[in-house]
Amino acid sequence: MHSRTYWFDEDPFGLNKPRALTTGGWLSYQSGYLADLFQLRSVLYTSQPLYANPFGGETELLSSDGDQLTTLGQINGRLKLAGQELTGGRMLVRTPYINPFDIRMVPLTFEGITLMPDDRGPDQPLDYMVSYLSRFKPLNETSFTPFSKALGVTQDEGVLTTGVSYHSDLWNVGIANYWIKDTLNTAYGEVDFLVPVGLDDGAASLRFGATVLEQRTVGAGLIADAPYETYQASVRLIGSYAGLVLTLAGSETGDQASIQQPFGFGTSYTSMILSDFQQAGVRGTKLSLSYDFGMIGLEGLKALVAWGRGQGTSHAANDGFRDQEEFDYRLVYEPERGRLVGLRLELEYIDWRVPGLDLPSEDLDQFRAIVNYKLPLL
Question: Nearest 5°: phi and psi at 308?
Answer without folding.
Answer: -140, 150
